[in-house]
Please model this.
Amino acid sequence: MADRPVLMVTGSTRGIGRGIASYFLEKGYYVAGCSRGASELESDAYTHATLDIADEDEVRVWVRGVRKKYGGIDLLVCNAGLAPAAVLMTMTPGDLLESIFRTNVNGTFFVCREVAKAMVAQRSGRIVTMSSMAAAIHEEGTAAYAASKAAIVELTKVLAKEVAPAGVTCNVIAPSMFPSEQFSALGEEVTKRALERLVVKRVLTIGEICNVIEFLAAPESRVITGQVIHMGLVS
Amino acid sequence: MVTNDQALQLIQDSLDGLHESGIIPDAVRVDDGTVLLGTGSALDSIGFVTFVTEVEDRLQRDTGKDHYLVLADIHEFNAGESYLSAGSLARYISHLLGDSERNG
Model:
């Protein structure tokens, strides 16, 4: 294993993913990130892979490469996802539905699957997936997105049961709102309505999100698995 | 090219390694009919996942190339079997490495 903990994070070029990568680099982690585009993160402890997480083969090669480079993987944050502009379900085209599920569900599934295999072999590891408040508040215009985020909760819970005997935990974070391009893409009307549904009526900071990840990654959290941590919302 | 016997030996070595590291409680003697996945297997689900990773690691060390054991491909390669035997996996590995050599 490496001389420092190793984090893999998907979608690390922008928004929450980039914030997570930067935060854990500062905490002394080796960070292996990926996204469809190049990264501007500059650190000797950061490696970046350009790939599509919905491509099984590319994910296999990425995970194998990180495992070989560092000798193990301590923490995975499956953050990458699509958040399209709000559109009523009755108006949602099939190709939009498919692209959302391809990235959010298939992508999360493939990355979790490959990393879980590595963690099972090493008999330790923490997996954190990203759901959303959208899966809890049933906001109009988010049917495809909310359904994909609900699917992430379910696949994480099932995986949590499957890998628990190997000492691997899997949990979900469901952030409310974080100021990012994806957040803006939802549209002003949807974000305003969603904000009114929150208990903590403001956007989250990256520090607040990373605090939850750190909590789940802590040795003392080894018995916490299959849980969903909602942020800013009572669910 | 890897023969079936060499692939069976690799499977044996992988299982021995897992036994020595305490992941599999009992030693497994591998022959063509040894069940690896399904009724009668000495491996539970976690043990099987670990075994697959171990085989992939050994293949990488032995050949210098990354190889991935894909269960769906194995099933396709051994149509009609409801379990995975060491013999079936050995034939798949032999086929996999043969393809890899042919494709450079």
Observations:
- The two ends of chain B are 12 Å apart (CA to CA).
- Chain B has a mean pLDDT of 88.
- The first strand of chain B starts at residue 35 and ends at 37.
